[in-house]
Design brief:
Pfam families: MFS_1 (PF07690)
Largest sheet: 2 strands, antiparallel
Main location: membrane
Distance between the termini: 20 Å
Shape: globular
CATH superfamily: MFS general substrate transporter like domains
Strand order of the largest sheet: 1-2
Keywords: Membrane, Transmembrane, Transmembrane helix, Transport
GO molecular function: transmembrane transporter activity
Radius of gyration: 24 Å
Strand content: under 5%
Protein name: Major facilitator superfamily (MFS) profile domain-containing protein
Order of helices and strands: HEEHHHHHHHHHHHHHHHHH
């Protein structure tokens, strides 16, 4: 790798290629000025206080809006809209179709416009759609609202995660991203508490309780024999523990400067949780099943952020990262389509199909993580063996600048 001293010695019209190990970018740059460490920390804290809390609140609202259909079901949505058969599952599924399709285009729009304009605009749009959901009268109206909720929310999560990778260095970003993402875990607790209160508003203003909410965990707990109101409250501890685990894993991962082992940890814990749920005797032991939900949820939530950061760390330049992260998140949301159709009412409270599919996906995540880690390590070792002379003989400065993460100077985060 060309050193800073070499750059200073040349000071010619030609530039030198260097790798910034923190930014996961390969850049062509002139001599890098020295920065005051205290001033850098001050600016970093300023960004922390302004950017991260705002994104966290926005994501909290987005996740509550998206997942409240589960609380609405417990509160009587199916009965009031006369949903039959698989209609509720269809309403869940339809959200993810535009949500997945629109994620990459939305990140392209974000790159072409400004986050300060794009993100608030889509937030207002999904708020309007959710408000209209509260006045639907039948299955068709519910499906239309869920479809447009998917359209309007599609750009937020990939856009926000990409924005964080732009503002923070590669081993700073996960600690910040987890504060933002913890809002998803917190939203489960918040929506459960909110649902408990709203359910007691049934009839106020001529509205049914579920209309004031305007996925699965509330429904699972309800099927264990708890009342609808208690089912809402019992979701809260599950999401709180998931949030704590997510934060702890993120901090440890950034300090260790490693991603794959923490993804494996989460996937293994989730797998154990789903195995326990499948093996749990039901009915008759609702407390045992409830306890295993803690294990499965904590594992699932804690490995999501390391996965997103792993991809964000290892894609360059920024345009490739924007599209790659949107593609990753879009692919992950295919699980939403699957999940909406595997927890079958006729299997309650065992949900053999749902837990079995979740277990298979968790095991697949373990295998995929090990394969990807091996591939990254192989490429890093191959690049370590290349000498400066070999690199200069093969590439020009312009070519090196365009290679991004394929540059021989780039090192993948493991």
């Amino acid at each position: 790798m060309a050193s800073l001293e070499a750059c200073e010695e040349k000071m010619t019209s030609s530039v030198s290629v260097k790798t910034d190990p923190e930014h996961s970018e390969v850049a062509v740059s002139n001599p890098v000025p020295a920065y005051d460490e205290a001033e850098t920390k001050r600016i970093l804290r300023k960004v922390d206080y302004r950017l991260v809390p705002m994104l966290a609140v926005m994501y909290l609202l987005a996740f509550v809006d998206r997942s409240n259909i589960g609380n609405a079901k417990v509160a009587g949505l199916n009965q009031d809209l006369h949903l039959t058969g698989s209609q509720y599952n269809i309403a869940l599924t339809i959200f993810f179709v535009p949500y997945i399709i629109c994620e990459i285009p939305c990140n392209i729009i974000l790159k072409l416009t400004r986050p300060s304009i794009w993100l608030p605009s889509i937030m207002i749009a999904w708020g309007v759609v959710l408000t209209l959901t509260g006045i639907v009268k039948d299955f068709r109206g519910l499906v239309i609202c869920r479809f447009f909720l998917g359209v309007t929310e599609a750009g937020f999560f990939p856009g926000a995660t990409y924005l964080l990778t732009i503002w923070y260095l590669r081993y700073e970003v996960q600690t910040r991203m987890v504060v933002f993402f913890a809002a998803a875990s917190l939203s489960g607790a918040f929506s459960g508490l909110l649902a408990y209160a709203i359910q007691h508003m049934d009839g106020i203003g001529g509205l049914r309780g579920w209309q004031c909410f305007s996925f699965t965990i509330p429904s699972v707990i309800r099927e264990l024999g708890y009342s609808a109101a208690n089912a809402q409250l019992l979701t809260i501890p599950i999401y709180v523990l998931a949030m704590i685990c997510t934060v702890g894993v993120a901090i440890a991962s950034d300090r260790a400067k490693q991603r794959y082992s923490y993804i494996l940890l989460g996937a293994v814990v989730a797998s154990l949780g789903f195995i326990a749920l499948i093996a749990s005797p039901r009915p008759g032991w609702p407390g045992l099943t409830y306890g295993f939900l803690f294990l499965a949820s904590s594992g699932v939530y804690s490995c999501i952020i390391p996965t997103i950061c792993w991809i964000g760390n290892n894609l360059a330049p920024s345009s490739k990262r924007a599209i790659g992260m949107a593609a990753l998140i879009g692919g992950g949301n295919l699980g939403g389509i699957v999940g909406s159709n595997i927890f079958l009412e006729q299997e309650a409270p065992q949900y053999w199909t749902g837990y079995g599919v979740c277990l298979a996906i968790s095991l697949l995540a373990i295998v995929a993580t090990l394969i990807l880690r091996r591939a990254y390590l192989r490429d890093n070792l191959a690049r370590d063996k290349m000498t400066e002379a070999e690199i200069r003989a093969k590439y020009t400065d312009a070519q090196l600048a365009e290679l991004g993460d394929r540059s021989p100077y780039f090192r993948y985060t493991l």
